[in-house]
Write a structure and sequence with these properties.
By secondary structure, this protein is an alpha/beta fold.
Length: about 375
């Protein structure tokens, strides 16, 4: 049961652009941390419900929102005077939303925080790259947030942690200080590439897990795909310039575990529908919220091809989406090209023991337990 908040004291204003489940949840995180939060919502009835009833019944049923949260359909009103701006819109519509935002932020140095976990389909750009390109702003102003963050669990104030990443340590720390409260802890790092791709790639593995779950396969199959999927994620991200340790922290392994094992995950749900025999268009129709993993499959595979990285599990997901593979055929044993026994490569072309996975688990646990240094310099 969600605890009742004490009488609020208005704090510094922050804006959240996008009032879906994650945007609203992050607004609650910020408000519970002491900020005065103004949400921008596209639909007038949603803005009115958040402001007047302190509810978002469509996306967060049963959740009471803080009294220091309001919403508006007026973008200028939402952004005016905000000391930080958080962006939580579908990744494929980010560019058009940024075009509307630009006149209100181009003459400021306000930090811009991406809450999105996707790759732009038309360009293959990460969300922070799209922000930098469209707004033509200093990349040091941009931060990204990622981690094991299932919206409804956090809205119910179940404890978790996230990583705030920026090329500027000062920006990351300023955002992390604002985005923390008694149930939400923010760590920081400067590995933006690894932090963003961790959030993107785990969605693709979660779709694969959903597919095998929908087919009816058990825990052995899922565990094998998660483990081999982590190797694919690390190979890809490192080839793009990420630090391998980042994929072993909250933005990689932590997010992967949460997304793959929870029925609250939209990508897991989308995969499960695919595994049950629904086609891609049917899945999109049934999903009431955006499953970023579906749109990211093709651009991620294209980026992987450009740097010479094999991603057989993600390739199988694409084949299921395209209708060229029976969902029952998706399996970790198909990730090798022949029957020749191979060493278990766990990270960065290493074969042999399970040291990489063991270190990954230890790193994730350390971040939660000790507040010590984590992946790629993650620190509280």
């Amino acid at each position: 049961m969600t605890r009742k908040s004490q009488t609020p004291i208005a704090g510094p204003k922050v804006a959240v652009v996008g009032a879906g489940s994650w945007g609203t949840t992050f607004g609650k995180i910020l408000a519970d941390g002491g900020a005065s939060v103004v949400m921008w919502a596209r639909r007038p009835e949603l803005a009115a419900e958040i402001t007047e009833s302190k509810r978002n019944s469509r996306y967060l049923p049963g959740i009471n929102l803080p009294r220091t949260m309001t919403a508006t359909t007026d973008l200028a009103e939402a952004l005016r005077g905000a000391e930080q701006i958080y962006l939580s819109v579908p990744s494929q519509s980010l560019r058009e939303n940024l075009a509307a935002i630009r006149p209100f932020v181009e003459d400021t140095d306000v930090p811009l925080v991406s809450l999105m976990k996707g790759v732009e389909k038309s360009s293959g750009l990460r969300m922070s790259q799209v922000i930098e390109q469209v707004l033509e702003c200093d990349p040091a102003r941009i931060a990204v947030a990622s981690g094991p963050n299932l919206a409804l669990e956090i809205a119910r104030e179940q404890p978790t942690a996230a990583v705030i990443s920026s090329l500027s340590p000062e920006t990351a720390e300023a955002v992390a200080r604002r985005a923390r409260n008694r149930y939400f802890r923010s760590f920081v790092n400067t590995d933006v590439i690894g932090t963003e791709f961790g959030g993107v790639l785990k969605n693709l593995i979660a779709v694969a897990i959903g597919i095998v779950d929908g087919v009816g396969y058990g825990e052995n199959t899922k565990a094998s795909i998660i483990t081999r999927g982590l190797v694919e994620m690390t190979d890809f991200a490192v080839a793009q310039g990420a630090q391998p340790e980042t994929l072993q922290g909250l933005a990689g392994l932590g997010d992967l575990i949460a997304t793959c094992q929870s029925p609250l995950s939209r990508n897991n749900t989308a995969g499960r529908l695919l595994g049950q025999g629904y086609g891609y268009k049917e899945v999109v129709t049934q999903m009431q919220q955006t499953a970023e993993g579906l749109a990211s499959v093709a651009p991620v595979l294209q980026l992987a091809k450009q740097v010479g990285v094999d991603m057989p599990i993600v390739q199988q997901v694409k084949m299921v989406l395209d209708g060229t593979m029976d969902p029952r055929d998706i399996a970790p044993h198909l990730t090798t090209d022949d029957d020749q026994p191979q060493g278990e490569r766990t990270q960065n072309d290493q074969t042999g023991g399970g040291g990489a996975l063991r270190r990954a688990l230890q790193r994730a646990f350390d971040q939660f337990r000790h507040g010590g240094r984590g992946a790629a310099g993650d620190r509280p």
